[in-house]
Batch of 2 targets.
Target 1
Amino acid sequence: MNYFQLFGVPAQFDLDLTDIGSRYLELQRSCHPDNFAAASERDRLLAVQQAANINDAYHSLKHPLLRAEHLLALRGLKISNEQRSFTDPAFLMQQMELREALAEIEDADEPEQVLADTERLIQQQKKQLLQQLSAALDAGEPQQDQLAAELIRKLKFFFKLQQELELIEQQLQD
Amino acid sequence: MALLQIAEPGQSAAPHQHKLAAGIDLGTTNSLVATVRSGEAKTLANAAGKDMVPSVVRYTADSVIVGDAAVSAAVTDAENTIVSVKRLMGKGYQETLAQAGALPYRLTEQNGLVAIETVQGIRNPVEISAEILATLANTASETLGGELTGVVITVPAYFDDAQRQATKDAARLAGLNVLRLLNEPTAAALAYGLDSGQEGVVAVYDLGGGTFDISVLRLKQGVFEVLATGGDSALGGDDFDHAIVSWLQQQTGETKLNGQQQRQYLKIARQLKEQLSDEQVVSIDLPLQQDKHWQGELSRTAFEQLIQPLVKRTIRACKQALRDAGLTTDEVVKVVMVGGSTRVPQVRQQVAEFFNTDPLTSIDPDKVVAIGAAIQANVLAGNKSDNETLLLDVIPLSLGIETMGGLTEKIIPRNTVIPVARAQEFTTFKDGQTAMAIHVVQGERELTENCRSLARFELRDIPPMAAGGAHIRVTFQVDADGLLSVTAQEKSTGAQASVQVKPSYGLTDDQVAAMISGSMQHARQDMQQRLLREQQVEAERVLEAVSAALDADSALLDETELTAIRQALAALAAAKQGTDTAAIKAAIEHTNTITDDFAARRMDQSIRQALRGHKVDEV
């Protein structure tokens, strides 16, 4: 299923998320099973499936990595379930350093400060990679698509770091 | 009233007739039914003039008593008088023994599920709940003067799949058509009309007799979006009562209580709790054994100390729910209070303190859920065509499967918007393997044994291939009621693998059907009547739906298709007049097949229309 088509938007990485949000609500307003509560069983089932598709599409479109993966999948490059090991030593080294920084936050003299510094670093890197990803995807060339796939793999590490950072932030607050 | 209604085949005789629909709050302690009449939602009173029916069912040798009459017998006939049956819905026998402590019933095991031995024989929670539902539905149809076309039943947002399924089974057993299972907090927000005008984040704090729910909703342009739900399915006002009972036991020195004494203590505890909402100190006169009495008093401050740990637990759950929603307390614009236990001043005060705003309490907290359910039932029955409300719900607990080493792999994380469908691929690990077992669980824990077992599925009829050759795509679908269904397909051959469902804590379809035919009220003939009636109702739905579709969109069809559909409708209308259940069923299926393409085209069209206001990019 082409999620971009379902939402009636061009198949590109840069999307207006507010617009996607309002399209989502209008689609659900017309397809949600609640509109079919008194309908025949077949129509109700159809509505459940359609509403599930719309939910799935929205979920993928609003998240940058899922959106990029979907875009690549539409172009015939499937990377969502791949098992692949990383071979960029510089990148892996940087990840290890960031991970160490996270592990040391708790014992730091000023954990809040270290946390904020680490977060800024992660955000910076993430932003940079996302910009590169956007450029690669919008080029629409097979070679650039391979580069995009590589960028997505890297970004996954950063999104994971971000999650762990939020977890540490919560623990600090408690 | 017209004696004879004549309508063209396939045309509904009265398309805009007001449909009788009701909302039912099937509560742990009390249950209520409400409906919308002349545009106003109100709870309905039974023949005795009461709208709050205690969720108590008593079995005597030759009758079943529900509500107040059962309560008065509760102390004298504890073993046959079931209170708070909602706590037992969808529960296993072993886990009930482990959790429940001292229930005054003779518990027994029925296919792994908990059931109760009564003077009328073994009764399970589904059957007991069905008695309560039937009593409420009866009140509604007597007051409204007609059969209900459908009901909305509320469940705690925290209910897992097994508990929701058990609730739906109970409705089916009571002969009710469920339009929707609605989360209680969502119903409460609807009752306050927060869908119109209000924008922003709303928290619903629902402290009932037996469950605590916190829901965080976002309201925007008539859309109810559940951002997060949390709570505790075993925490409520009953626990306040038990805290007082423990305190009383300490005072009187009566450490071991029999069933009757327990009820005596509970009754006094409840009175104390209610009185302490208005008074600072209440004096107690508790009859003990051998005609002795214990006299003393309980102050509000002392009571608040007793329940403080419980109230704290609710606040912690509020914190967690906000966190899940990625929000802080400043972003919450309204807090709705639900459940009788929110009358306790201590609760209101702590909630106000935590959210930093005065909670909404103007609608009776005992009735607010039923009223909201009635409003939604009215909408779903089709009585309100200009309805703009959209309820988007989330799944309360993650769905996952057991993988190697007893670990859980999440397939649908909690707070995912429903309906949702997620596919997962499995492969065979032996040459020629034709079957595979999958264990589905619900919960947040890493280890499968710490999650709640939902069902075990057996995939059969997998085409025999070399190990790893067969790829089976299993689709987990959760509908708008939060109920799971599973389908499976082998990818390379497209062969449909059949799925055999063994619910871990639920009844199979066959068991529910057997319960319906087995119950005394439904002798064999009644059963056949009922199956016929069910098919006739479904036939009517199909006729109405297809006719309405033809009226609106016959332009989507060519002459041949149109003729085929008209013929199918005429045949269905004719079959519906007869009494051959199988023939009606076949005519429905034929009509469905003939109109499959038409339905899909209409769905596509409605999607395009939904996006009309937007620039549609033709890709």
Note: Chain A is about 75% helix and 0% strand.
Target 2
Amino acid sequence: MEAFELPKTFDEFVEARKAGFMRVKEFKENGGKIAGCLCSYTPSELMDAAGVATVGLCGTSNETIPDAEKVLPKNLCPLIKSTYGFAYSQKCPYTYFADMIIGETTCDGKKKMYELLNELKETYVLHLPQSQERAYAKDVWYEELLLLKKRLEEKFGVEITDDNLRAAAKKRNRLRRALCEMYELQVNCPPAMKGTEMMLALQQGTFTFDVDQQIANVEAKVEKAKKALEEGESPIPKSAKRVLLTGCPSAGVIQKVGMVIENNGGVIVCLDDCGGERTNKLMIDENAENILRAISDRYLEINCSVMTSNDKRLENTKKMIEKYKVDGVVEVVLQACHTFNVEAAKMGRMVEELGVPYMKLETDYSSTDSGQIETRIAAFIEML
Amino acid sequence: MYQVGIDIGSSAAKAVAMKDGEVIKTILLNTGFSSRKTADEIYRTFEAEGINSDNARYVATGYGRISVPYANDAVTEITCHGKGANYLFKENGTVIDIGGQDTKGISLKNGRVMKFIMNDKCSAGTGKFLEVMTNRLGLTQDELSKLARQGNPITISSMCTVFAESEVISLIGKGTPREDIAYGVIESVVTKVVQLISQVPGEKYFLTGGLCEDPYILERLSKALNSPVTSVPLARYAGAIGAAILAEE
């Protein structure tokens, strides 16, 4: 059994963090392999087929930002700083024990940060096309997946077979279907659960090594909520205003934005960020002859503001507003996220043309503007 | 029954009592260190006039809205300023509220808030900016406005309150006339406010908050927005009036 060392500052950690480190250490000592991922464009099926567990490493805490700012500029997205800060400070067990990190050339901040992250931990960067529009874009992305496949095979000494890829695609599709079923519980009036409850469950899911376990967790949650709905129970009052949350990844602002919405008379009925329905409703063609191509095609379909143009995101949001009977749209832009911030002008216009109120909140992970954010959110909900 | 609206802002606490749709009493206090104590003082003042929790409903607003233990409800200052401005001006338009620590633009249509905008964390274009500058120049707000009217145009280029104060100090050091500095200070606020308000344009503008009775500010804002900006003396209490109206609803 291979032994793994703990970070030098381990003794200073609080108990929960210590327990997290011990759990991941044990996983590794039992032969487990871990790839850290940072984006919904990461083709998880390749890691699944290589027998490598994937975990989401997107930083969602302000805690490590001061460490990150020893290296990175202050005026950068908090998600990028937090992610790097966790690697730098060795405070995240998943980053610390990851065998490698897989990134993509998404936004400028991330792709340049990966160069620095690579100094701390092997970071393999997939080159994502700038858009889905060009005829060759799909071929480029397919070639990128072939290169990643080769790298994973070398690194872990395994062969990634088509059978394994197909099995992984089937399993991940099941997870996607379960997630979509969970999202759709919110179509009900009142919805089945608080949006923040769902956001926390999704965040928890990214730290679960076993995909089957993730599926079971989501299915159990759906089952329970469905039963409660059938019995006419909902933790949400009928009067709650139905909010669609769009924009940047929202896991770092669950408290600062999500809970404030839900403590001030609103309920998040649609999570329209990259962890939500807009990504997870895209399925892989499990029966495709070339399964790797089917995987690469599916991932490139994802809408994100790093793409130009990205009108499909707006079209999808429009559908979500109707499907979820949305009263108001809140767009979260993380500080210095140029792509979502600029695209917000188009989003705001589209939403207002539908006659639905729209508010953009530009914020970070700190508590410095919590007062203003709360007043804005409360006023927005009062306005609906 | 009476309706009492209490607007505890970052600098000033405003309260009004209404009966049958009319404002019958107003209170203006410095918020001071403890919003809670200020709220209690407001309660006692109204109580002395025979208005108490037996015959009145209370709605609190402003940053201190959670520090009013006897309030029946708490509503944000955006909604309250909208309600209050609709009561005072009875027209569609955009409310400009220059507050102690933030400035707001509220677009009103048929008495409803359609859209609003608030400044970010920064204090540029707020009452705080003016407070710092009047202190530095040894003037009251009235004196600042009067002097500004006689000043020659100069520009204070820093938007940040702290940097702008350094800029004012260096202007004082250079012997720049106080009138000119006063002009620059007010233009800085007007520019910043107009920049913010341009995101919620209206055909007419109404000024609420502590500067509502300052004719020079109204004049400069009207010029910069190229539209009339009007106000009334009670506009300082717009948030409290809105809260009182909500106490009835």
Note: The beta strands of chain A are 34-37, 53-56, 100-104, 123-126, 241-247, 266-272, 328-334, 358-363.
